[in-house]
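Changelog-adjacent note: as of this version, every example in the card shows the full chain rather than a window. The one below runs 476 residues end to end.
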Amino acid sequence: ETFGIMIYQEQVMQIAQVLSGYTLGNADLLRRAMGKKIKEEMEAQRKAFIDGAVERKVNADKAAQIFDQVNKFAGYGFNKSHAAAYALVAYQTAYLKANYPVEFLAASMTYELANTDKLNVFRQELTRQDIALLPPDINRSYPTFSVERQADGSLAVRYALAAVKNVGLGAIQIMVKTREEGGPFRSLADFCERIDPKTLNKRQLENLVLAGAFDSIHPNRKQVFEAVEQMLRQAAAVTEARTSTQNSLFGDAAQAKVSLSATLDWSPMERLQHEFGAIGFYLSAHPLDAYGASLKRLDVVSHAELGTWMRARGSSRAKVAGLLLSKQEKTSAKGNRFAFLQLTDQSGMYEATIFSDRLQTAREHLEPGRPLLLSVDIRSEEDSLRLMVNSVEPLDRAVANTAAGLRIFLRDPGAVGSLKNVLATAGKGKGKIELALDVPDRSWEVAVTLPGRYAVSGPVRGAVTAIPGVVAVQDT
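Full-length structure tokens:
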């Protein structure tokens, strides 16, 4: 039936019955003992199995070999009815993933709505399949993950509002129902006029802002975040006015007015850190994106590409970059300190181990939130790679020692003053800074190379990008 390969637990019983003379009752006891891994019982069963086989003219060594094979199988084998049902589900899900990958992954992410680690795994799978994961949006997202057609006709997964941390499904269901009944929210004031303030509290609203859910209404997240309490007060005032007897008799309901502070938005790095806190992983971008071509200059390999890189180069040593998420120190049986480092790069999260001799010299750099450059030895263990740290260096310092530079495109000459202030914090390095000023009524641009050389780190690049009047920034 299965071409000589053990598939079902019933076949363990059949082997014991035919080869060693077990009754079906005793064969079932053997199956249970194997499944529970009871050492004393297994030793007794081993002797009975081999003795029975020898009585039936089977070589003792061969019988022992067969018992070991059966024992190994029994550790993961299932009964036929169970295995057949699971196989059917496996075929169905494999078909859906192969033929409807966007819908399948959206449904899978909805199933793991509250499990950030699983959602991040699915995010990596979306990236691998070149499927876009669109950010949460109060005007386009639903409580669960959904499929959305983009302008180019391709399908994408839209992030679920209820998957934002500390928001909850109930509050989002009410908010989405309000949107579907009255149309998209046109402004912050319109949002305040239409929501029930009893269904959304300050923490929920703040996390939606930090996750970027209000970007389509107002892109300056810092302004909206600072206005959250005001928005809730306005929503409460409108609700009270709408339900008051005086209002219903003599006038229209009050209108919400949201006054935003005149403040610049958070820097790209700050936005990403807030986004990480609200979602559990980096969604719209990754902090290492700011390092651009510098990572290539440093010969950095992404964690996802390490296996391919190792096979192509024939080397087990590589450089990886990562933002340190956490450090867990432990003590070995010999009393030596070591640590597990949880890091993230553009391809996802990964772990590296650093032992006592390296840990002692690297500890000052191992602060959560800090971008690092690691030299690692790669060990292949079954289906995974284990990374052992040889050296640790702050990524900003490593980049500053390269010739990484910037070409900055300006539309407003007034941005030069802000640029000067940012570069003053960069310090001396090896990177050139080139300015290109767009001239709208001409077909050319004015290009200038600034005197001196600068240490162009990721935060410096991010700060330059955030300056009003800067159109684009390119790595040189």
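Structural remarks: The mean pLDDT is 88.
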